[in-house]
Amino acid sequence: MNDITLLRTVEQVRKLVDRWRTAGMRIGLVPTMGALHQGHLSLVSIAIGEADRVIVSIFVNPAQFGSGEDLSSYPSTFDEDLMKLDEAGAHCLFFPSVDEIYPFGFSTSVHVSGLTENLCGKYRPGHFDGVATVCAILFGIVRPDIAFFGEKDAQQLAVIRRMVDDLNLGVLVHAGETIREPDGLAMSSRNSYLNPEERKQSAAISRSFSRAAELVAEGERNAGRICGAVREVIGNAPLATIQYLELVDPDTLKHVEKLKAPALLAIAVYFGHTRLIDNIVLKP
Prior knowledge:
There is one protein chain. Helix content is 38%, strand content 19%. The chain is of the alpha/beta class. The strands form two sheets. A six-stranded parallel beta sheet has the order 1-4-3-2-5-6, sandwiched between helices. It has a three-stranded antiparallel beta sheet with strand order 7-8-9. α9 (204-217) packs antiparallel against α10. The longest helix is centred in the middle third of the chain and has 16 residues, at 127-142. The N and C termini lie far apart (46 Å).
């Protein structure tokens, strides 16, 4: 066991970080909303390999949930999360209250234009403002050298990278690959919402990606035909409802008609009431 340090306040984190910095240590931050799974822990593992000290934050950020979304029911497994992080070797868990992150009178929001209008942003207005704002706050508190995010949330990753570049925040953003279940479903805290039949049918996402990759390997370059094949595979899962499915440039997130360079195939699918997102990079 690592005897992880649990901190609840900004002042506590800053004092600890100051000590580490005085000792010349490189600091890594893994921001999470808890309900940790192997995807999160893989980021912690990467962080331990690249930083001298690793802080993991758990904060269910109300600013990134819209009306009618699952803030009140978002899974909370704090004791298990703390144990997992201790076993994984994280050095500090920052577990702030909402008031600690958004004190009375807080009135600032970070908006990243150009990357937040399509894909998830089209259906979750204000979501990425909440994401960018809380990440900017966490970066300001921890002042990490490196921050670690998963590739599964590709739009989030693009937004954070743009914010860091535009605001000269001096944080290196490291992306960890998507960690999947044995049947190919991307690990997500929201997978726990799926009932057994929804969980079984959710593997259609991974199968559809395999079909897309096959088509590209066979020489298909037309985005419409690639996406059509993905829709066909997912259509065989009766409980699936596609919210969006699009082939986009990985950096700009703009729609791609022809696959001339690596492109991001991004999807959001409902299985019952549970919304799952996933993506794959297709390379011609």
